[in-house]
Every structure is written in structure tokens, then in C-alpha cells.
Structure prediction request, 354 residues.
Amino acid sequence: MSVPQIPIVANELPLASFPVADAAIAELAAKFAPLVITNLEDKAALAAVHSARMVVKNLRVEVEKKRVALKADALAWGRNVDAEAKRLTVLLSPIEERLEAEEWKVAAEKQRLANIAAEEAAARLKVRMDALAAFRAFAAPKSVEAMDDETFRSFLEAAGAKFAAEQKAEADRKAAEAAEAARIAKERAEAQAAQAAEAARLAKEREELRLERLRLDQERVEAEDAARKVRADQEAEAARLEALRVASWPKPIVVTEPPPADYETADQPAGLEDEVVDGEFVVVPELSAGAAEDAAIVQRFLRSVNDLENAANAIRDGRLRERVVNILADCGSSLFSASAIAARSAVAMAGSAG
Prediction:
């Protein structure tokens, strides 16, 4: 649709009506150019400069008056132009505004539809991004927005499968860690229980050993006391038997005179030997070789029994130690008795032989 063109006519102003022209101004400039004041006392030069200035001033004033006169008509013309333009604008504005409103209807509808489309796209993008976020998947929003529905569905299914596999692996890992932690805790508890039981057992054993040592020490002390008593009884019995033995020996033969010079070569009574006791020559009976050997054997037995008694004190079992010590004590006592009987017999035989 073509828009009609309205012609506009402009009036030309008569610029040649001013009272002075460019040529006259150039003539005056050339005429007045030599005028200068070189001395403050040069009144003629001052008067000439003043006169020339007044001529130029009068021409300027005439130009200004002509300008005001000419412009008055121009101002009136301008006001007429403004009024006419305003009138025409008032006539044109309703038409333009109606046409503009029609244009804005289309633009506004387009903008509304564009806003709706943008809102729908933003909502669709949010739904897609939330769906991906649920599977901890990430993609650039522009790329997600550019996908069609089928492409996004495939992309979302792949992200879901990957997420499910990761979740299963994480669950398996946590289950394995929990099982391992439970196993370690169970083993630790069992180890602690075993350590506690072992500590209790060792404590019980230590207490039993302590009590056993106390018992053994007590039994050892009692056995030592019993052994000392047995030894004391044996020693008393030995002393008694020794006294009997000494009492049973034949009295020594005291010779008041010295023996003859050939006494050593003379025949001596069998079983007698001589010695000097308190300055006197005494002849005492002597045991036979067999009796002396028997006495030595019995003494060795007695020493062996005494050694066995000392060794028996090292037996840890108190009852067994006491029994062995008593047996050895009885054995020693019997040997002492046998020794005494042998000694008495030997002495008696020696006395008879004498």
C-alpha cells in the first residue's frame, strides 16, 4: 500500500534588501586599515579613528534594524508554519495511532506466543535436567534443550542404567565393608574373650601355683623338721648304741712295767694292739679284718642313706617327699642298729679270742 506524498512549499527571503553589501564592507576595511594611533597626544589621529568607528557603527545599527524588520515577517511566517503543522499533525495522529495499535497487536501476540514457548522450553528443560540429576548425570543445558524427545529418552535410559549399576556397586561395596567390619568386630570380640579367658586361666594357674608353692613350702618345712627330728633321733640312738658299744668293749690291759726290749717281735695276743695312754702302756683289743670290713660297709650304707635323705627333700610332692624321707629314716635307723649289733659282736669275739 503506497503512502500519498503531501507537497511542502518554502518561501525565500530577500537577502539583498540590507543597507550595506559585501563590496561596501570590503571598501571600508581597506579605507580604514591605515588608521592607527601611535602617540597619546596625536588628537588628529584619535579623531580620524573615532570618526571611522562611528561610520562602521552606524552601518551595523542599520543592519540590525533591518534584521529585526525582516525577521518580524519571518517569525510571523514561522508561527503560521508551526500552526499549520500542528493542525495537520492532529489530523494524522489518530490514523497513525490506530495503525500502530494494529501493528502492536501482532507484535504483542508474537511476544506472548514467544514467552509461552520460552516458558514451555524452560519447563521442559527443567524437567529433563531434574530427571538427569536424579541419576547424578550431567550434560550442558543447551545440548539437553536441543535434543528431541526420542534422543533425550535414549540418553536418560543410558544415564539410568549407569546410575543403577553404580548404585548396585556402591551397595555391594557397603555390604562387603559392613560384613568385613562385622567379621573384624566378631574376631576382635572373640580374641578379647579368649584373652580374657586365657588371662583368667593364667591367673587361676598362678594362684594355684602360689598356693601349691605355699603348700609345698609348708610340707618341705614340715619334712625338714621331721627329717631333723629323725636325724636327731638317729643321732641319739647312735650315741646310745655307741655308748653300749664302748661299754661292751673289753677293758684295756694296763701294763705297769715297760714291755721287754723284744716286745715288738714277741708273739702278741691275737686281736690286741698297744698304745700309750696318759703315760701308761695300754693294750686294747683289735677287731678282726672281717668285722672291720663289715663295719665299713655299714658306714657306707649309712652315708648313702644320708645322701638320699638330702636328695629326697627336693621332691615337690609333699606327701611323696614325706613318705620317702620316713622310709629312709627307718632305713637309717635300722642300719644304725645293725652297725651297733655288728660292733658289739665283733668286740665280743675279739674279747673271747683274747
DSSP finds six helices and three strands in the chain. The beta strands are 253-255, 272-277, 280-285. Helices lie at 22-32, 43-134, 141-146, 149-248, 289-312, 318-353.
